[in-house]
Structures are given as structure tokens and as C-alpha cells.
């Protein structure tokens, strides 16, 4: 009996230890946070999220809808995020953090339909620099293996693709203006 009591006492003391409670609570909160975080990551990759700013801000969405990677509202070959959000976790985080700058610019109203063409070279260059630096990772994520079978490509495409490695070229050297108005800058 005496032993029973001391066991309850010990249990009671244990229950009172906030640190020990902290562990299961901490795990619970961490699981919740990761869940919410994943939710944010997935939701922010949907076209609707990108459209929410870019549709009224500039002409990017209209151009995308006229491009070959967009078929219909229900079918796209590539979403905005497929081309613009890297697939590696670290790179993805870098983009998400950089995108908070976009929220700042959005609130500030930096880009409007009227001044977009003036800003476009600067923005396009940001994208080109990223794609040159990561060897057009986003493109290669889809155009790979059977989806990039040189033997099935028309001659003009095949010849260019065969030579690209030896010339040190990557997709974005040639395929600019693919989803948006083609521009050239010096
Ligand atoms: C909160 C509003 C907002 C949302 C949502 C948004 N953007 Fe933007 N985006 C902007 C603004 C503002 C700029 C211009 C930033 C500047 O002037 O430097 C921009 C610039 C860009 C650029 C060019 C510059 C760069 O960083 O490469 C790309 C590409 C881009 N957005 C893609 C996307 C994609 C893809 C999505 C959806 C995953 C998205 N945006 C969602 C506001 C937004
Ligand atoms: C989410 C997957 C996906 C991504 C990302 C993607 N594509 Fe595509 N792309 C496709 C599919 C699917 C087709 C249609 C079938 C095909 O031609 O292989 C296509 C078609 C094309 C075509 C032929 C149609 C045309 O417009 O001439 C080119 C060129 C092309 N993609 C280049 C690129 C480049 C360059 C990138 C990166 C900037 C890219 N794609 C990113 C899936 C993708
Ligand atoms: C040296 C320039 C060059 C580079 C680099 C290049 N392409 Fe191409 N690509 C072309 C040309 C030229 C065509 C033919 C388009 C035409 O005739 O209008 C083409 C066609 C294509 C097509 C359509 C093929 C078909 O079956 O009709 C796809 C898809 C494509 N490229 C994807 C890519 C991807 C992905 C990369 C990077 C891995 C890439 N290209 C790198 C020049 C290039
Ligand atoms: C097939 C790949 C692809 C898709 C899909 C795509 N983009 Fe782009 N985007 C590019 C490339 C490549 C550039 C670099 C400029 C160029 O070559 O057109 C670019 C450039 C941009 C720019 C800079 C301004 C400019 O005109 O260069 C913005 C902003 C942008 N994209 C946002 C978006 C948004 C928002 C969506 C969806 C509505 C989207 N992109 C869909 C490939 C893509």
C-alpha cells in the first residue's frame, strides 16, 4: 500500500513537471506546424495563387493562356510554379523567401499594367539568370527521358539539342518567350 502511494506520488510529481509535458505538446505543435506549412507550400504553387496578383497587375497571365503550355482552364502542360518554383527544397525555400519581396512590391504597387513593359526587362533578366544558373532545372524536370527523346524530334530540334551540351547551352539560351511575350535585352 505504502509502495502504491509513493508510486502515485511519483506520478503526480512527474505530471507537474512542465518540461516533460512540453515534449508531447511540442511534438503535437510541430506536427501541426509542418502540416500547415506543407499546406501553404502546396496552395501557393497553384495557378490561382499566382493569378491573384499577376492577372490584374500585368499581362503575364493573358500571355501564358495563349502559350503552348496552357491548354484550357482545366488542362495545363505546366503551371506557373512548374516553371518558376524550383523542385529542390532549399531552392524552393529561397524562392518563397524572395517572393515575400513580391508581396512588398504588390502592396507598394510597383508594377501596373501601364508600366509593366518598362519593368519587364528587369524581371525577365531575373528569371533568365536563375535558369542559366540552375541549367534550366524546371524545364528538365519535365523534358527528360522519354519526354525528350531526340530520335522522335524533327530534325531542326534534334540538331540543336544534340549540340547543346558541347556548346555549353541550356534550354533558356534558345527557348525564351515561351510562355510570355518574347523580348530581347542587351
Ligand atoms: C502578392 C502578389 C503576388 C503573388 C501572389 C505572386 N506574385 Fe509574382 N510578382 C509579384 C510582384 C509585385 C512582382 C514584381 C517584383 C519586382 O518588381 O521586383 C512579381 C514578379 C514575379 C516574377 C519575376 C521576378 C522574379 O522573381 O523572378 C516571377 C517569375 C513571378 N512573379 C512569378 C510568380 C509565380 C510563379 C507566382 C505563383 C507561385 C507568383 N509570382 C505569385 C507579385 C506576386
Ligand atoms: C510541368 C511540365 C513542363 C515544364 C515545367 C515545361 N514543359 Fe515544355 N512541355 C511540356 C509538355 C507536356 C509539352 C507537350 C509535349 C511535348 O512537346 O513534349 C511541352 C512542350 C514544349 C515545347 C514544344 C511546344 C512549343 O511551344 O514549341 C517546348 C519548346 C517546350 N515545352 C520547352 C520548355 C522549356 C524551355 C521549359 C522551361 C522554361 C519547359 N518547356 C517547361 C511540359 C513541361
Ligand atoms: C541551341 C538552341 C536550343 C537549345 C539549347 C534547346 N533547344 Fe529545344 N528546340 C530548339 C529548336 C530550334 C527547336 C525547333 C523549334 C522550331 O523549329 O520552331 C526546338 C524544339 C524543342 C521542342 C519541341 C520538340 C518537338 O518534338 O517538336 C522541345 C520540347 C524543346 N525544344 C525543349 C527543349 C528543352 C527542354 C531544352 C533544354 C534541355 C532545349 N529545348 C534546349 C533549339 C534549342
Ligand atoms: C513553360 C514555362 C513557363 C510558364 C508555364 C510560365 N512562365 Fe513565366 N517565364 C518563363 C520564362 C522562360 C521567363 C523568362 C522570360 C522569357 O523568356 O519569356 C518567364 C518570365 C516571367 C516573368 C518576368 C516578366 C517577363 O515577361 O519576362 C514573370 C512575371 C513571370 N514569368 C510570371 C509567370 C506567371 C505568373 C505564370 C503563370 C501565369 C508564368 N510565368 C508561367 C517561363 C514560364
TrEMBL record:
InterPro entries: Cytochrome_c-type_ET, Multihaem_cyt_sf, NapC/NirT/NrfH, NapC/NirT_cyt_c_N, NapC/NirT_cytc_sf. Its cofactor is heme. One of its GO terms (biological process) is denitrification pathway. Keywords: Cell membrane, Electron transport, Heme, Iron, Membrane, Metal-binding, Transmembrane, Transmembrane helix, Transport. The chain crosses the membrane at residues 20-43. Heme 2 binds at residues 80, 83-84, 180. Binds 4 heme groups per subunit. Heme 1 binds at residues 50, 53, 57, 102. Heme 4 binds at residues 139, 171, 174-175. This is Cytochrome c-type protein. It comes from Photobacterium proteolyticum.
Amino acid at each position: 500500500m505504502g509502495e502504491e502511494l509513493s508510486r502515485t506520488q511519483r506520478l503526480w510529481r512527474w505530471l507537474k513537471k512542465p518540461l516533460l509535458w512540453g515534449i508531447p505538446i511540442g511534438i503535437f505543435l510541430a506536427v501541426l506546424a509542418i502540416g500547415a506549412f506543407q499546406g501553404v507550400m502546396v496552395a501557393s504553387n497553384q495557378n490561382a495563387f499566382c493569378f491573384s496578383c499577376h492577372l490584374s497587375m500585368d499581362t503575364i497571365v493573358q500571355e501564358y493562356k495563349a502559350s503552348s503550355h496552357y491548354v484550357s482552364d482545366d488542362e495545363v502542360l505546366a503551371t506557373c510554379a512548374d516553371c518558376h518554383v524550383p523542385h529542390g527544397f532549399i531552392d524552393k525555400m529561397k524562392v518563397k523567401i524572395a517572393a515575400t519581396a513580391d508581396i512588398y512590391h504588390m502592396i507598394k504597387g510597383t508594377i501596373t499594367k501601364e508600366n509593366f513593359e518598362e519593368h519587364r526587362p528587369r524581371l525577365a533578366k531575373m528569371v533568365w539568370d536563375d535558369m542559366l544558373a540552375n541549367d534550366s532545372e524546371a524545364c528538365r524536370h519535365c523534358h527528360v527521358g522519354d519526354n525528350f527523346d531526340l530520335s522522335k524530334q524533327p530534325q531542326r530540334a534534334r540538331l540543336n539539342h544534340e549540340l547543346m551540351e558541347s556548346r555549353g547551352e541550356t534550354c533558356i539560351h534558345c527557348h525564351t518567350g515561351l510562355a510570355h511575350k518574347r523580348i530581347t535585352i542587351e
